[in-house]
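Design review, sub-item: ligand-bound model
Attendees: FS, YL, KQ
YL presented the inputs for the adenosine-5'-triphosphate complex:
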Amino acid sequence: MRFSEFGLTTLKEVPADAEIVSHKLMLRAGLIRRLASGLFTWMPLGLRVLRKVEAVVREEMNRAGALELLMPAVQPAELWQKTGRWDQYGPLLLRMHDRHQREFCFGPTHEEVITDVASRELRSYKQLPVNYYQIQTKFRDEIRPRFGVMRSREFIMKDAYSFDIDHDGLEVSYQKMHAAYSAIFERLGLEFRIVWADSGEIGGSKSQEFHVIADSGEDAIAYCDSSDFASNIETAPTFPGDGKRAAATKELEKIATPGVKTIADLCGLLGIEASQTIKTLIVEGDDGPVALVLRGDHELNAVKAQKLAGVASPLTMADDKTIREATGSAAGSLGPVDMDLPVYIDHAVGQLADFSCGANEEGFHYTGVNFGRDLAEPETVDLRNVVAGDPAPGGEGTLSIARGIEVGHIFQLGTKYSEALGATVQDQDGKDRVMEMGCYGIGITRIVGAAIEQNHDDNGIIWPAPLAPFDVVLVPINMHRSDAVRDAAEALYGELTDAGLEVLFDDRDVRPGVKFADAELIGIPHRLVVSERGLGAGELEYRHRRDEESRNLKREEALKLLKESTIS
Ligand code: ATP
Ligand code: MG
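KQ shared the predicted structure:
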């Protein structure tokens, strides 16, 4: 590709609304352009990268025996009503009417549609197992689209759905996808981790996520260095502790705490650590509000809390009015002593003695609170996010926390959708059996952003070779004034292209500095510079995007290096 014909515009300025490096670099390098919130155009350079991701995913899915199909993006409401998700999905679902006032949505995912397809196509156990996949556009009306293509509203997903006669079959299909996903992310040259995950509103049981490790990741991942345990923090469990609690040494005391609204305020006033305080959060429940009690320095885990009996799902914090009516106090002064609501107490709180908490009276707190004396011995539950240093499951080692970007997710769905939509086949005895399903997603567009998060420097993107939009950038110096340089560059361009390399030939009449800066910004792995001086010595200047310095190579040497670098 000749740069002069490629229409690429790079930007010097960092766009104001871009918060993270991949978003900034994707805009600056001209990979994407914004249309509206969460909507992006993939420009020619970006599309080349996207197609590379798709190609690797498609190859590995095909290798794993999955069958590609393509479903409509627009889906009829009736299917979603049958599975109950028309109501459950809420504002994330973009809903619309056709000219006959029939309701539709723009698909955020395709369980309903594929199950409908399968219920019509699959009649006998002999047709199983089968795994259908597509690479297709989704729409989710995200509450906070951000980070460019990483959390957009319209995005491209690879989604696959397996159908099996029984649970053992599903397990085999699931493990095949586990292996295929590992192969995909390895081939893409990304550093990733596989973690246990929550199944969310999609339903089902077993589920694992594939995360690209990056500081800007929206998810926290807990992992153990001395075992292979790794989990999204959403589902990483905490444990009740050893039951050995320090004895009470202080009397219960009620003290005036005017103006104290937060744990930090309370610690400041009393001169104590947050770990000696507890906080009480009021959430909505099935039969009125419910209190959740955590140590002052711990974070509530919404995924765990919303699974507790009587707690509303999705977890919803009670408003001020509800809190006042239920407790007689405002949010800053709550506590479990004499609280007249269902109360869930976190495991870590159960270990405390002589702690402080709100007195359910505005402007007052208790100090020296002890279980078994000032309030009943608690039955504790797991309510909080794990923190670094917590014990890992299995009794071995402790947890560390890393940030990750979810790029893939595999689920065992079981029969939730096949049951609701009547997707059955005849088994060996001629009886109807509801099929066991799995579903498997990869965020194709998100991978491009995630790859940049993991591979960049101050000057721009550093593409892992399998994702690079071009293999080589060819930079002639003063080509418009030197026939020798022009002839040599044209010859190289032809030869490299004939050898199957994807070459960006920077034939623009601009200063070399501009060409070098653009080459670094757009992150092409190999750079070859053709200059009059080099040609005099029969040499080309070569630099890999990750190298500190360039080096001079004989023409043949350079060609050999480049040709070998792309043999995979
Ligand atoms: P998240 O937790 O990030 O919102 P999710 O768990 O809702 O994602 P899934 O339903 O598991 O997403 O979808 C499969 C894959 O699609 C995800 O692993 C992710 O890579 C990608 N994906 C999901 N939502 C978006 C989005 N808004 N923008 C870009 N990619 C997305
Ligand atoms: Mg997910």
